Amino acid sequence: MAGGNWTRFSEFILTSFSSLPSEIQSLLFLAFLIIYLVTLTGNSLIILVTLADPTLHSPMYFFLRNLSFLEIGFNLVIVPKMLATLLAQDTTISFIGCATQMYFFFFFGVAECFLLATMAYDRYVAICNPLHYPVIMNQRTRVKLAVASWFPGFPVATVQTTWLFSFPFCGTNEVNHFFCDSPPVLKLVCAEADTTQFEVYAIVGTVLVVMTPCSLILCSYIRIAAAILKIPSAKGKNKAFSTCSSHLLVVSLFYVSSSLTYFRPKSNNSPESKKMLSLSYTVVTPMLNPIIYSLRNNEFKNALARTFRKALGLRNYIP
Questions:
Q1: CB-based contacts of 75: which residues, under 8 Å, 6+ apart?
Q2: How does this chain sit within the bilayer (predicted)?
Q3: Which residues share a beta bridge with 169?
Q4: CA–CA separation, 33 vs 43, rounded Å?
Q5: How far is CA 163 from the centre of its chain?
Q6: Strand-pair partners of 2
Q7: CA distance 299 to 316
Q8: 3-state DSSP helix/strand/coil percent for the chain, to nearest 5?
């Protein structure tokens, strides 16, 4: 429906990787399908094993389970539609579908920022206050921290999505991305519409959402580093560092890729380069998280082996 030069779209078109040859798109489909399956399998295993094995009923694995659940949701929002565009060239997405995808992208993205900060605080308490750790991070506290990590995603996603989709759209309905992200959708808004306040809100909101948890993580690790340096033995230092090295690696992957995507100057940020950077934190990082936590964690690997042996009915095993 059109009113003057303003148009109400019933659907959008995701350009995705349509500029690439069909052979390359087929290879991308296979690669992303494998990554998608590995992501779902790896994160599902973390959830199941940390629930099934009593030795993993600690605060660290409680938050890791939340992270795995979040990564599954993040992937389900983005990847299935991307695979459909690559395999069947199904590039259309309804107006409501686009808004819904954007809403949950913001929700899971904001939740991950704050959850990573909560996990850093958990490591800080475990290393700096080991004797009081079980008391401080009791069941009630960890649930409150998890809720506090998930909650900010609701207002941020609600305000940004409803505000953006309240604008009128003109001209083309092609979103130059593989999912409905805010910047490419904003480009479709009519020039007559004043988006200044929204853009200021989006920039300030992004900075706060990224920098607030990042500052909390930095403060936690500064204190962790100071505590580790006070440990007299090299063995003790290595043991303390190993308990937070996986989380530190996951944090680095997530924040570096997302910061490069949203904080690069526009002149250096072509749509194609942004797609590549977006793939790193929407597709690749969720796959790497369970690999990092499992390969670098003997406690989890032993629990995984016990769980599989129990599932196979092998009762007489070495724990």
A1: 36, 39, 40, 282, 283, 286
A2: Multi-pass membrane protein
A3: 7, 189
A4: 15
A5: 23
A6: 7
A7: 19
A8: 75, 5, 20
DSSP string, 129-177: STTTHHHHT-HHHHHHHHHHHHTTHHHHHHHHHHHHTTS-B-S--EESS
107: its two tokens: 């929700």
C-alpha to C-alpha distance for 259 and 262, rounded to whole angstroms: 5
User: Burial of 100 by CB count in 10 Å (0-12 exposed, 13-18 middle, 19+ buried)?
Assistant: middle
- 6-7 vs 2-3, strand pairing mode: antiparallel
- This prediction has a pTM of 0.89
> Residue 270: what residue type?
S
Strand partners, 94: 11
Within 13 Å, how many C-alpha atoms sit on residue 294's CB side? Answer: 21
Place of tokens 């060239």: 89
User: What are residue 114's phi and psi, to 5 degrees?
Assistant: -75, -30
| Per-residue confidence in pLDDT tens, the chain, 319 aa | 444 455 567 889 998 888 888 888 899 999 999 999 999 999 999 999 999 999 899 999 999 999 999 999 999 999 999 999 988 888 899 999 999 999 999 999 999 999 999 999 999 999 999 899 999 999 999 999 999 999 999 999 999 999 999 999 988 889 999 999 999 999 999 988 899 999 999 989 988 998 899 999 999 999 999 998 888 888 888 877 887 888 888 888 888 877 777 776 665 566 677 788 888 888 988 998 888 887 777 888 888 888 888 877 765 544 4
Tokens of 187: 């480009």
Could you count the other beta carbons within 10 Å of the beta carbon of residue 88? 9
Q: How far apart, in whole angstroms, are the C-alpha atoms of residue 77 and residue 219?
A: 32
The dihedral region occupied by 270, where left means phi > 0, alpha psi between -120 and 50, and beta the remainder, is beta
